[in-house]
Amino acid sequence: MNKPLTGHIRTDGEAIWIDDYLKLGGYQSLSVISKMLPQDVTKLINDSGLMGRGGAGVSTGFKMAAVPMGEKAATPKYLICNADEMEPGTFKDRWLLEGNPHQLIEGMLVSAYAIEASVAYIFVRGEYKLAIKRLEQAVKEAYSKGFLGQSLDMHVHPSAGRYICGEETALMNALEGKRATPRSKPPFPPAIGVWGKPTLINNVETLCNLPHILNHGIDWYKALSKGVNAGTKIYGVSGHVKKPGAWELPMGTTARELLEVHAGGMKDGYEFKALLPGGASTDFWLEDKLDTPMDFASTAKIGTRMGTGTMIVLDDKTCPIGMLLSLEKFFKQESCGWCTPCRDGLSWVAEILSAFERGDGREADIAQLERHARLLGPGSTFCALAPGAASPLATGLKYFKDEFLRHIQEKSCPYANHLHR
Amino acid sequence: MLSAEEKSEIDHEITKFPVRRSACLEALAVVQRHRGWVSDDTLKAVADYVGMSATELDGIATFYNLIYRKPVGKKVVRICDSVSCFIMGYDKIRSKIEQELGIQLGQTTPDQEFTLLPTPCLGTCDHAPALMINDSLHRDLNEDNVAQILRHE
Ligand SMILES: Cc1cc2nc3c(=O)[nH]c(=O)nc-3n(C[C@H](O)[C@H](O)[C@H](O)COP(=O)(O)O)c2cc1C
Ligand code: SF4
Ligand code: FES
Q1: Domain boundary among A223, A245, A264
Q2: Which domains does chain B have, with CATH numbers?
Q3: Which listed ligand is nearest to A375 at the C-alpha?
Q4: Nearest residue CA, atom 13 of ligand 1?
């Protein structure tokens, strides 16, 4: 039971459907919560130390406790599962959605009970066709068994491909049928959320933890971890490693263990240069950070972030500036256009980076990129997309300065695997 | 004009929301399923049906990657151009596809068979490079298997 979220997921690619799920003890947490008050469920989740797995690492219990309770609270209250996974390099929620959709529904039932939500949506990325099909099937099964339709209604909303929809306030606008630009905060969604009502939004992996915490208790949950934060974490590795993949491991597993043990080390002929620890919106790490436990607190302590925990490995055969260009082109394209540093700045960043790749880079451009990295940083924009774009840019400029200079001196990109367009 | 079938499918989607217009993306997806893309006239009909202005609905339709405001080929090939796929050889795969189909990103073959578009990360980065052809996902691409995949889809 050290892989509670994924241990039962079938290896033949088929989902766990309702009969098998029930045989495996599925939906048992509902009888546990039926003997508890909603507030006690929230307190238990709070005490468990579960932190949101969507990237920011906010305490789940804290967010649940922010939802107004009692007779005066506005109704209906909404619970939303954020299944819009689109952070480049991130492929963890797909596994949970396709492999065990009922686990997510059960987690949502637990959360909805705690905050007294009566309507729930699964906001799922439009490209996840198989996940959408399986979620719809699982929701249907949960209705037919009476788990849904009593106190909670649940709908699947397939989005249509836009990264910003994963930002929780943009997500609410999208769900309301508006253009998906973020809202200003405060008010925060638990106070005034979708359609103006109290709303709780959690990531897929976060919600999948809930049934297990209820079934096995806090001590068990905390003991799963070997880091500061509790539970397990789904980590992943992509890039030129021997065995790219995703694994559910104790929270606090080091980047080195992920890279060298689980991913089998670098592929023959490739050497490690750097990595992004958790998706496109995180800082580059060099070798010196590899022994950092991958959890929210340990990474914060050294001034960086774990993000989604799915790392992207840069090797010695791939141009670091080409990689930065790929990252920043993504952010430029997915900017919703609301704030100037993001809308205008990212276009310039991408343009300058591609000039380097073409061999047209100048030394003054490096200072210009550094300026953009500052302007994109926290505090100047409506949402975290821009600071996310600034993370790899600022650290890339710091760690790969000699690579920029080499592009200038050689008047071209010295790598075979680079990106022009 | 929306067909009776389209209307009934949209009506079903509307039941999922407390506000009629909130189903506008679902409504666009319904008509696109029937018609392949969303023309100006279709857009107006959907806007009327869900109760919002055509201009506002266009602002939403054009916001999304998966709503097509221009005709597309029978098979829409969407190749991931995000970071892990870039590292694993996106450029070579794209060139190979462009060569095979005789079109570049953003174009449709003259016989209306294929449209080639870029897409952000498909969430299968451990099997990069990856692409989708309509609803099906293809992973672990290389220059050899990609031509085959295009032919057999
Ligand atoms: C641009 C942007 C995109 C995001 N995309 C996602 C996403 O796809 N899935 C997700 O769970 N969180 C995403 N987030 C984070 C959400 O805003 C939110 O913090 C999260 O869903 C909260 O869930 P958690 O508390 O369970 O982590 C994104 C944030 C930003 C700024
Ligand atoms: S930071 Fe970028 S994506 Fe976020 S609100 Fe501003 S313009 Fe939109
Ligand atoms: S980067 Fe291509 S699938 Fe994730």
Answers
A1: A223
A2: 4-63 (1.10.10.1590), 75-152 (3.40.30.10)
A3: 2
A4: A166
User: pTM higher than 0.90, yes or no?
Assistant: yes
| Whether residue A243 sits in one domain with residue A257 | yes
Are A274 and A366 contained in the same domain? no
The whole-number pLDDT of residue B152 equals 84
What are phi and psi for residue B102, nearest 5 degrees? 70, 25
Residues of chain A contacting B56 with CB distance shorter than 8 Å: 179
Q: Which of A290, A315, A340 is the last residue of a domain?
A: A315
Q: Which long-range contacts (CB under 8 A, 24 or more apart) does A269-274 make?
A: A269/A317, A270/A240, A270/A315, A270/A316, A270/A317, A271/A315, A271/A316, A272/A313, A272/A314, A272/A315, A272/A316, A273/A314, A273/A315, A273/A316, A273/A318, A273/A320, A274/A314, A274/A320, A274/A399
A300 part of a folded domain: yes
A320-376 pLDDT, tens digit each: 999 999 999 999 999 999 999 999 999 999 999 999 999 999 999 999 999 999 999
Which candidate, A254, A163, A275, A236, places its Cα nearest to that of B126?
A236
Task: Give the ligand with the smallest distance to the CA of A335.
Answer: 2
Query: How many inter-chain contacts (A to B, CB under 8 Å) are there?
Result: 146
Mean pLDDT over the full length of chain A: 97
Q: pLDDT category, A1, cuts 50, 70, 90?
A: low
Nearest CA to ligand 1 atom 30: A167
> How many helices and strands, by DSSP H and E, does chain A display?
17, 8
- Cβ atoms of A284 and A383 within 8 Å: the answer is no
Mean pLDDT for the stretch of residues A64-70: 97
The boundaries of the domain holding residue A292 are: 232-315
Quote the pLDDT of residue A421.
Answer: 57
Report the number of secondary-structure helices (H) and strands (E) in chain B. Answer: 7, 4
Does one domain contain both A307 and A341? no
In a domain, A131, yes or no: yes
The reply to whether A98 and A218 lie within a common domain is yes
Chosen from A119, A123, A127, A421 to mutate, greatest number of chain B CBs within 10 A: A127
Chain A contact set for B82 (CB, 8 A): 88-89, 280, 326, 330
Query: pLDDT by residue (tens digit) across A131-146?
Result: 999 999 999 999 999 9
Indicate if A324 and A303 belong to the same structural domain.
Answer: no
Using one digit for the tens of pLDDT, what is the confidence trace for A173-229? Answer: 999 999 999 999 999 999 999 999 999 999 999 999 999 999 999 999 999 999 899
Q: Residues lining ligand 3, CB < 6 A?
A: A 88-89; B 80, 82-85, 121-125, 128, 130
Contact B64 A161 (CB under 8 A): yes
Pocket test for ligand 2, best of A334, A343, A391 (most atoms within 8 A of CB): A343
- Cα(A69)–Cα(A92) distance, integer angstroms: 33
CATH number for the domain harbouring residue A357: 1.20.1440.230
Q: Tell me how far the alpha carbon of residue B122 lies from the centroid of ligand 3, in angstroms.
A: 5
> How many domains does chain A fold into?
3
Residues 23-52 of B with CB under 8 A from A: 23-26, 28-29, 50, 52
Measured in angstroms, the CA of A91 and the nearest CA of chain B are apart by 4
